[in-house]
Amino acid sequence: MKRIVVFLLLAGLGGACSVPVNAQSPGVAKYARESREASRKSAKKQQKMFKKASKKQRKAMKKYARAQRKAAKKANRRPR
Predict the structure, then answer these.
(1) CA 43 to chain centre
(2) Virtual CA dihedral for 47, 33, 19, 23, nearest 10 degrees?
(3) Structural Rg of the chain based on CA atoms
(4) What is the tens place of the pLDDT at every residue in 6-59?
(5) How many angstroms separate the CA atoms of 40 and 35, rounded?
(6) How far apart are the first and last CA of the chain?
(7) DSSP class of 19
(8) Phi, psi of 26 (to 5 degrees)
(9) In 3D, which of 54, 76, 58, 78 has the Cα closest to residue 66?
(10) For 50-70, what is each residue's pLDDT tens digit?
């Protein structure tokens, strides 16, 4: 009889512990931390996009300069 009672108590406690409890709302600190993390991620993403755009612009400028040199070289050739 005692074994059954102990088993029921253990089963009841085990079931009660597995149920999530919402004791308090997360406070202002948690929301502030999440906001800081989100802003860091956003800044990092924006910086990555800026770096990519700068690289693309440098590449385009190099291509343009190369085309200008080629055109100048072609214009300066002596006709035969």
Answers:
(1) 9
(2) -160
(3) 35
(4) 777 777 766 655 656 666 777 888 899 999 999 999 999 999 999 999 999 999
(5) 9
(6) 117
(7) S
(8) -65, 135
(9) 58
(10) 999 999 999 999 999 999 999
Q: How many CB atoms lie within 10 A of CB 13?
A: 10
Place of tokens 């948690």: 30
Q: What is the token pair recorded at 61?
A: 């400028």
What's the length of the chain? Answer: 80
In the chain, count of helices (H) and strands (E)?
2, 0
Only one residue has tokens 């385009």, namely 60
What single string gives the DSSP state of each residue in 29-40? HHHHHHHHHHHH
H helix or E strand, kind and range, residue 26: none
